[in-house]
């Protein structure tokens, strides 16, 4: 006899239990896909939570926060009091207590105060599925130089969010610091497979390759780091060493000259959240600076305005607010704030320089000149300010006045090819061809030479109106090397000039025709008039004597087409 089937009708309790499990499984899946801002649930989370064992929690204490901004001090003290009150409650709520400990630990970490580890450890014990707490514990240990503890904490965070890029990179970074290279490399390679624009992963792999003696791989990763984050000037040091080991002395020296202290960064929402949790003028100022660096002038301007309202004597806030407003197109507002910054800190030549830039953009040339002159008077070694003043004077067709400032700028910025070529424009406008040639030749003699500088020298040797300056064979040699690197319309135009100067008009016509073809494809209509005029000269057996098109040599022009 077959037993009758059981009824498939669910009781209300069974239905609720099934829904809770389904919801918990769904949230757990979300947690695996990325970071949740709150602890995720797991199957069985609908069951009553175990009581909080107060004795198992670490003791917490409030450090001396008297030096913090008043708003920040009140914020930390309030968070501490919430954690204490919840811990001492008759029946503490586990999730609420974990969140309170986590908030306190995160704030202490954000403000660089001692004592963050204990409340964060309590938060992790009470809410073990929240990725924030082990991740922040990893940061605490990393900053303290305890890489073993940091590696373990970051690994716990990575286990909670397996696809999270910052957790994987930080875990690999700690393993590298501990000498566990074989455990670090697969993690970093997996990160780059998923997120190839992760500069810090490239930098770490570059350092590992350098340590292993693989200069080619090190160069590849360090160059990738700088391509992603050009401001990461600290990378130039190991990259220079990699080029030295590869036997490329010129590149070794070039990168040594660019060595700085800025390390690669990583897009890290949890560390950003720490920064954004801080309050007070100093915190808002740091947050605004970050927003401005990240290309968000709207958020930056809003934060700088808060700082200025609270601290109207902050020259830095006024200066950067002016920059943000300038980026938003409010030139009048930008000038007002920059003028305020200059009044508050008149010794800062950089403020006067930025003010000059915005005045020039607003068409207020006389005021811009005064600001630039103040900048170079305050900071004579500010090459950017010297160059800005020179360019303003050249734009006003005052090349004779501009040349001393160009000379200073070029001396202070020896790798700035554009500055040297703009100086050449002024010398050419004044008919000082020999001086222009000698300056460019000196620059080209010290590799690696800027391609714009090589091009300018080749043109002078090929087409200068001064017979004593021209050297056709030298021009051909330079122009051939340049064309092999650039293969551009301007490089081919220069090469045609050079061949015309040595009397090889057939080759000059061929290269000039190529230059015209490329310029036409690039819709360089203003340039085509000069190109076609020189082509006609070559067909008549005459060399070129037009160094640059008139619009390039015009006041205010730049070398770029």
Specify the CATH class of the domain at 57-256: Mainly Alpha
**Total number of β-strand segments?**
0
The CATH architecture of the domain at 57-256 comes to: Alpha Horseshoe
Whole-number mean pLDDT: 89
CATH superfamily of the domain at 57-256: Tetratricopeptide repeat domain
Radius of gyration using CA atoms only? 32 Å
What's the shape?
elongated
Helix content: 55-70%
Q: What percentage of amino acids are in beta strands?
A: under 5%
The DSSP helix count reads 29
Stated plainly, the CATH topology of the domain at 57-256 is called Serine Threonine Protein Phosphatase 5, Tetratricopeptide repeat
Main sheet properties: none
* SS class: mainly alpha
N- and C-termini, Cα separation: 95 Å
Which consecutive residue ranges, at least 5 long each, have pLDDT under 50? Answer: 1-45
N-to-C series of helices and strands:
HHHHHHHHHHHHHHHHHHHHHHHHHHHHH
Overview of the structural elements:
The structure is a single chain. It is built from 29 helices and no strands. It is mostly helical. Among the domains are: 57-256, Tetratricopeptide repeat domain (Serine Threonine Protein Phosphatase 5, Tetratricopeptide repeat, Alpha Horseshoe); 414-561, Serine Threonine Protein Phosphatase 5, Tetratricopeptide repeat (Alpha Horseshoe). Helix 14 (281-293) packs antiparallel against helix 15 (297-310).
